[in-house]
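ugh ok fine here u go
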Amino acid sequence: MTALDETLDPSLRSWVEDANVLGSDFPIQNLPFGVFRHDFEERPRVGIAIGGHVLDCLSATRAGLFDSLSPPVRDALQSWSLNALMALGRDDARAVRRVASRLLRADTADGRTAAGMRDALLVRMDGIGMCVPAEIGDYTDFYASVFHATNVGALFRPDNPLLPNYKWVPIGYHGRASTVVSTGTPVRRPRGQRRPDEQKPPVFGPSVALDYELEVAAWVSGMSAPGETIPIAQANERLFGLSLLNDWSARDIQSWEYQPLGPFLSKSFATTVSPWVVTADALAPFRTPAFARPEGDPAPLPYLHDAADQASGGYDITLEVWLRTAAMRAREAPAVRLSHGNFQSMYWTMAQLLTHHASNGCMMRAGDLLGSGTVSGADAEARGCLLELTRRGAEPVALPEGETRAFLQDGDEVIIRGWCERDGATRIGFGDCRGVVLAAT
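structure:
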């Protein structure tokens, strides 16, 4: 797949008018996959985003518009999740994108046929509910930003912020798939053990240091057998696409429980993903070289090193975090931007994360979710969580009308946005990843 693929041509225009609006997250060059549900029915459906609408793949398949595809692919498009399509692999997803592109184009016979069936094929995004794109078997969160690892380490270990294994091995932990939710789902403040006074026993109650983490998620395609590895040269073909992710974190619970085995209840209460999976093929024009390691840093071990991945294993994705408090909503004030960074700053590539995950023979399944870890950059404005921005709460962020935040308060809404743009390519976006904090029960 290259940037010359017909679906990526910047001159393409859709008969879905709002897909042609400058700055749209979902122009015809994007065509991300998701899963939606009508309010009047329980059964979710696979959809493809186009402008402010969704192409209903179930209806389109039943209308014969995907008849050029194989029966297994047509069956996957009529499923209630993306697992079946992810299991088939990237080649079949490419075939779906090519057919969908021709169906949604303004200058093709297929497009003119589909446009005549508009009311049967399209639904408005503001009239449906979005689901988690796949039934997640396993969710693993990594720690792939050296800037985040260094900034956080300096708060706890000023003399030795980066542990000696960091530049050799991708660090991760197993998250909780059962609490991954789609954008817009409220997040309940967790309760847990914390130790605010080191001279006294711990207490149990609501977290008072709730945080967000700006991340990018990768969805795994295909299937590995137990004991099978995924060589680094093959890993990119096993990455179906990317979404945005918010790894909500209770920092006070985390600081008490993480030694010696790492995060547990401080992370497992909620993880929010954006509902659209932007395919790796749609992202092809925005691939970049892997992070340039400073002189003196070790090269990746051979099993994590591949020339092609080093040349184009990164992604040029602009990422932002916005905050809107309950008081701001009450006076109809807009959200405030807290951070602005780029995914190119990650020390490890997504392919390296997947290869390392499977390097011990761990079985990887279609629909497995990999979180990048907090995306932070070298500049202060690119810090991807409040723990970093406020220096563990010591320097609260100033908001309009005199509000401040050291950590999140009840009623706060966190909004993560991401997009790709460069000269010679059409801008594409991911849609919002958002959630409002509810008080602890």
